[in-house]
Amino acid sequence: MKLSFNTWVYSSFPVWVPAYPLDEVIRRLARLGYDGIEIGAAAPHAYPDYLTAERRRDIKQLLDDNNLAVSSMLPAPGGGAGFNVASANPAERAAAIDMYKRVADLCAEWNSPTLLYVAGWQVFGTSRAQAWAWSRSALEEVADHAAGHNVTVCVEPTSADSNLIDSCDDTITLIEEAGRPNVAAMFDTFHTHYRNEVPTDYVYRLGDRLKHIHLSEADRNPPGTGSIDFVGLVQALRDVNFDGYLTMEIGFSRRAVDPDDMARQSITYLKSIL
Amino acid sequence: MKLSFNTWVYSSFPVWVPAYPLDEVIRRLARLGYDGIEIGAAAPHAYPDYLTAERRRDIKQLLDDNNLAVSSMLPAPGGGAGFNVASANPAERAAAIDMYKRVADLCAEWNSPTLLYVAGWQVFGTSRAQAWAWSRSALEEVADHAAGHNVTVCVEPTSADSNLIDSCDDTITLIEEAGRPNVAAMFDTFHTHYRNEVPTDYVYRLGDRLKHIHLSEADRNPPGTGSIDFVGLVQALRDVNFDGYLTMEIGFSRRAVDPDDMARQSITYLKSIL
Amino acid sequence: MKLSFNTWVYSSFPVWVPAYPLDEVIRRLARLGYDGIEIGAAAPHAYPDYLTAERRRDIKQLLDDNNLAVSSMLPAPGGGAGFNVASANPAERAAAIDMYKRVADLCAEWNSPTLLYVAGWQVFGTSRAQAWAWSRSALEEVADHAAGHNVTVCVEPTSADSNLIDSCDDTITLIEEAGRPNVAAMFDTFHTHYRNEVPTDYVYRLGDRLKHIHLSEADRNPPGTGSIDFVGLVQALRDVNFDGYLTMEIGFSRRAVDPDDMARQSITYLKSIL
Amino acid sequence: MKLSFNTWVYSSFPVWVPAYPLDEVIRRLARLGYDGIEIGAAAPHAYPDYLTAERRRDIKQLLDDNNLAVSSMLPAPGGGAGFNVASANPAERAAAIDMYKRVADLCAEWNSPTLLYVAGWQVFGTSRAQAWAWSRSALEEVADHAAGHNVTVCVEPTSADSNLIDSCDDTITLIEEAGRPNVAAMFDTFHTHYRNEVPTDYVYRLGDRLKHIHLSEADRNPPGTGSIDFVGLVQALRDVNFDGYLTMEIGFSRRAVDPDDMARQSITYLKSIL
Q1: What is the 3-state secondary structure (H, E, C) of A208-242?
Q2: What is the interface pTM, i.e. ipTM, of the complex?
Q3: Which chains does chain C touch, 3 or more C-beta pairs < 8 A?
Q4: Which pLDDT band, with edges at 50, 70 and 90, does B186 fall under?
Q5: Which residues of D touch A200 (CB under 8 A)?
Q6: Model's pTM, two decimal places?
Q7: How many structural domains are present in chain D?
Q8: What CATH number is attached to the domain comprising C193?
């Protein structure tokens, strides 16, 4: 299985510092031995509005020079713009869908096979059924756009942060309702831990719908430093013939963090158990 | 002194839930007895892109109906867009300046006398001198735009979150360099606590430059529940004839929070010491 | 609003000791000033199999003598018998439905207007849709039986313990699907706290569907000893004209507990804020 | 010495989730390398009421196919039915005795040599002498039934949960009073730790009466993760020629647990010290 590392902890999202230019992050992750990088579409790295055509080409060149693949991409929900696909405000929903499409375009340009989909959240006053309908409709529109780029959209249950697609079965239901061949599933051990659920239950339940995975201990700590059973998780992933990236999404929830240390601890531990 | 409450904890910034429509927040804060509201320009409340002219008028009407003043406004830095006025990326700096101007326009429409200014942060690879220069230049451009609306721009030192304008004297230096009559200062007891500094030192040092203040205990808890000396702070504010709003900016750093409870605890405590 | 106290902490469910005969519990709660008692159908109190007709009459007499109403009743899920209405085993589902019916019969005999419904949980290998369908079917059968006794069945979201009916909207959906006039909702502040949700959101969202409520701090501690905003909750209940019982369901999760102390602390605090 | 693993953590007793079908548990424990399984008579695994004759045969076949022995069985005390053999309610005592007999029948069918006996607890209002007499009488009746199946009944002191048979000597006294050849002893390091007692003291004091043992750290954590001296315990067991199963009874007291991880950690540690 290949290893990837998410860029949030090196970016200004959601905490502002420390922050590094994307060039620096690409070189550092490659040097640490990662196969892939998961690029979040946030400043100062890859907010679509701020990327000129030249800059996009330069980044692609730098990735190639460092032999680092883009495993996946995702927008940054929750800033001023919200980008809640289940918002009661139609302008916010439209902006969110547009953001997903633009990140899908970046996926195409940088050869990322995967776009992650955060399905939004219920604001007080909106029913779950209505929020779900808006989220599903947005997913369908995003997936159809991504299909043109051969990009798979992976729905992520985000129980720790949201209140709409919380569980493994919520994810499956949404995928089945969308009914698109390029809509699949992912999950994050941080969120299964938040729900006090067993990660391997997700692996076996999702089966071949599972195309991506985030690894994290509680508190967004590196795999191997906490209580989550990654040995069992790797076994279960092999049982279902998972061939995606094991992607660390860690460290970004606080300022007091050394990103390189997070990346180094993770890869050292995972290589020891793979 | 008048009391105001910041809307982050009721919004999707920075954590996504709980989130309430702005109408609900206005009614609740008014019922709890607040004089003012500090409106953050974040979804689902007041992200400028999502507000139609009709919606802006409706909010103004609702504020008036509930006898609730807008004490102040501020953008939401750190989402995907970053809005770092000290970013090395000129597109991000331009977007940040534009965002401040649009929030200044909202201040004008909703009679907010005050716009808060977060002065940005240094990204790895940018010198402090360069970051400072960009931040100062942005401040001047924002202030000149705000001046046309009779809006005062208050520079806030944000040591806990950033690395550029950290201290009382950084703030004074930036204000003096800007040299605009509508540029003033504010500070937040959360940030002075982070630096192990004494809040009243800021009051006496800033003097009549001080036009706004944020009250918070450590961990963004309500005033009166922690270790900060708000009795002494109120005395110091009286000593310098402060006549702005005491504004709670609390609770927003985590999901596990009851916003109304935060607002009730704060006003109950502050009325007991004023 | 009337006050009631749940009997688990005085029973052998789920922890075995301390345990008291039901007669003792009735006398103690009445003496402490409670209006009602919520009787769990567990040994040594009210497991239906163990109650003779004479014993049932004696308990009714004792309740009347002590001027203590039965606010509500509920079975004990999760022992050897499970009583999971969403179990894949048809014998377990049938036993669970039968248990609910027998507790409904006890409600009738002891004048309890309310029967609580724990909607079961997903076992590995059962899809959520299937578990939901079984739970809904069981609810309908239980409700129809209870209707003959003029007993209302209140669905409780139990996020901390289960994985099927977790949220406010899950509850509403299940109620609406059942479509019976004697099916309503309740919630427990212990479970909303587990989900990091705001109790008053449940009150306003459930509105006149809300017929019962459990009060508890985190860790099943008495109201007023923790962080939950019961002042705000009582205000919200008044806003929606709630006229049911405020029922403490506390202390039962551990052996190291003094049940009378739990009951006394709760009533003292609640009378101080009502 | 052979290693076995108790099923509670995979069942709905006492916490409802996570829960797995017994088939799944048998396959997983066998794959992890266990010699035996201790099957608790709780849903969804082996509540006697819910097991058809066909299902019993299928489970036997699955055990044989996976080369997994049943080391032992036990009922689940403390649910709604209580199953307290020392209850003041004769119906509850009769139900408890009947449950033990039915689990003994399952032992016979699945070749389990051992049935565990939880000796009940004193409810307020019952004297210890009376509770003891009821418990002893029940034990005699259960043992005589089990004798017909060549099943040994092992009395377990459960100090952490009960208040009747708390100590090593309570256990010996009860066994001697029963005076049946198929009544023996067991103990659990979780309970000796609760009483601040030394596990090897139990081994030497019980001697050849000791036929079964439960291994657990404090908080029902896996052996090897806490403070208990399992190296010394294994030596003592060898000293007394113990030839039963070392059985893990762990993890079941809470929801936040990964059962496979518990099972894997335990067997890895125990194989390292045996």
Answers
A1: HHEEEEEECCHHHCCCCCCCCCHHHHHHHHHHCCC
A2: 0.96
A3: A, B, D
A4: very high
A5: 258, 260
A6: 0.96
A7: 1
A8: 3.20.20.150
